[in-house]
Amino acid sequence: MKDTKTTTASPATNAAAASTKTTKKKKKHIFKKKIPQKGDPDYLSPTQLRNRRKRNAKKKGNQQPPQQQESSANTAANNNNNKSNEDEELKDPSMKYITYPTKTPIVRTATKYIEALLQSSNSNNTFHVYIGPLYHWRTVSKLAVRPDATDKNKVAIGLFAENSHSLLPVPKCKAHHPSINKVVEVVTNACHELNVIPYESNTADNESKSEEEMGQLRYIGVNVDRSSGGAQVTLVWNGKSGEEDEQLEKLVANILNEMVLCKAEAGEEPPMKRQRRRGRRGDIKEESQSKDNVKKPVSSNGSNNDSNKVRLHSLWINYNSSWKHSNRIFEYDESCWRHVVGSTSITEYLRFPTTKSEGQKGVANPTPPSYPVPLHFPPTVFRQANLDSFTNIVGRIRERVLQMDEKPFCVELYGGVGTIALNLSDAVSHIVSSDENPNNLKCFQDSVKQLPAEIQPLLDYKQKNAADMVTSESDLFQKCDLLVLDPPRKGLEDEVVDYLCKGHCSSIKLLVYVSCGFQAFQRDCDALLASGRWRVEFAEGHVLFPGSDAVETLAFFVPK
After folding, report:
1. What is the enclosing helix (H) or strand (E) of 236?
2. Distance between CA 374 and CA 419 in Å, rounded?
């Protein structure tokens, strides 16, 4: 006979059960408040409900102690000021990503792509992205001149909104060097005073207009001398060279009256010369005074009010009467340029950090050349807008070249005025730089003339585009150990890619690629790696345009 177990509930369990029953009974008597429906006397529309909530909140706010009300008002004012500053940055196309400049879409894409490449090539290197100052870094700017949105008879100077011809005035752009913003103010005021007609964007409304009827001032270009702050100003005028234009001459005279011309010899002392200088204490004092005098701008009238004026390095006119459908800013033919006043070019020197503590953490600090390397920039040539940060790229290239077993024979394509090549001049056995812009040759030659006598014979320049170089200079490339590529945003020409992928370059030990357009770099890189002849040894990124969705990529390729 099976035992029968009897389970007896504890008093606590019985009490809990009783409580539950009681609660259930009580819930039966709880009735939800009926929500008024349309037609009921107490019904309030959503708008009426929202207004009632606002009134109640306002009533509570008025009941706050005076001290608390003042604190709330200050907080609101600060929030409004911050919002105003944020709105100003958001309106500026160049500041769209300024909050997280190293996390833009293209930087994320580049990081993911290149880290995978480095892992697949068993490289111990990781992909780092470097960034310099967020504000006032831009020393080169090309700004459009168009009718003001509120008054078509007045000019507005600024940038085009993304993928459009809608102008956004940026009178106080935070990316600009202060001298650029001052020039914008001077030119704007001069145009308003003289009733200069701004160039009109091509729209359906003015399709029937002739080029002469489109307006007068098309663009302004401003390059800043980093040492003096002097502005190299170019007025892009809708007209033809040689034709007299009274309105243009009045504009030139007005600008010259509002700016003070820097001395012709103004410019920063070459960095290496300053470090190597020796002498008695009295001599140093005298040199320091002389340097201070050089940096002070002067004008023709010597007025005491000159100290409040904007510094002018030089003034130029570029005559551009090209087709209204053309997006070309400058006409580069020599006959389209007129040098009005000032020095013919800005002279710059790259300042390599001499110690690790002096430079940004992680960037290269190579041994600099033992002599100053001047770079000459008239407005007719390309110049990096952020030369401070680009110096870190040149420094990394120099650091890597100095590690090569022997001084290499170097060929540079897309060389510009020789910004990279000239700063490698003591680290190579010979350099041949090249570019298609005819204005670069004189700049390069002027720089070479200022280098030591024993270095000058090692430097040559060819006025050819990259495609012509690889197809017509086969003897040159047979000697090439080091190839430096710094193409525009569109990347390498097909002829260059084919040359590198088909085995005609067996002598090259190091291929340096500096890219300002990542999508083009990715395309070219895929082609180089697919050829089976190259692998990525090292790569890093540099944000040269903080606030924009752009990244400069430096990569070293070596033969497999």
Report:
1. strand 231-237
2. 9
- Report DSSP letters for 475-531, one per residue: HHHHT-SEEEE---TT---HHHHHHHHTTS-TT-SEEEEEES-HHHHHHHHHHHHHT
Classify residue 307 by its DSSP letter: G
Token couple for 94: 């160049």
Helix (H, G, I), strand (E, B) or coil at 46: helix
pLDDT at 271: 53
Cα distance between residue 133 and residue 542, in whole Å: 12
Q: Are 81 and 74 in contact (CB under 8 A)?
A: no
Helix (H, G, I), strand (E, B) or coil at 284: helix
CA–CA distance, 473 with 211 (Å, rounded to integer): 42
List the Cα angle 399/102/491 in 5-degree steps.
65
Helix (H, G, I), strand (E, B) or coil at 282: helix
φ/ψ bin of 547: left (φ > 0), alpha (ψ from -120 to 50), beta (otherwise): left
Distance CA 451, CA 33 (A): 92
What local confidence, expressed as pLDDT, does residue 389 receive? Answer: 95
Q: Is 443's pLDDT higher than 90?
A: yes
Distance in angstroms (rounded) separating the CA atoms of residues 413 and 492: 10
Distance CA 266, CA 250 (A): 27
Which percentage of the chain shows pLDDT scores above 70?
A: 75
Q: Which residue has the higher pLDDT, 30 or 108?
A: 108
Decide: 297 and 230 in contact? Cβ < 8 Å.
Answer: yes
Residue 58 neighbours by CB distance under 10 Å: 10
Q: Around 515, how many Cα atoms within 13 Å sit in the side-chain half-sphere?
A: 24
> 3 vs 545, which has greater pLDDT?
545
Tokens standing for residue 292 = 């201070």
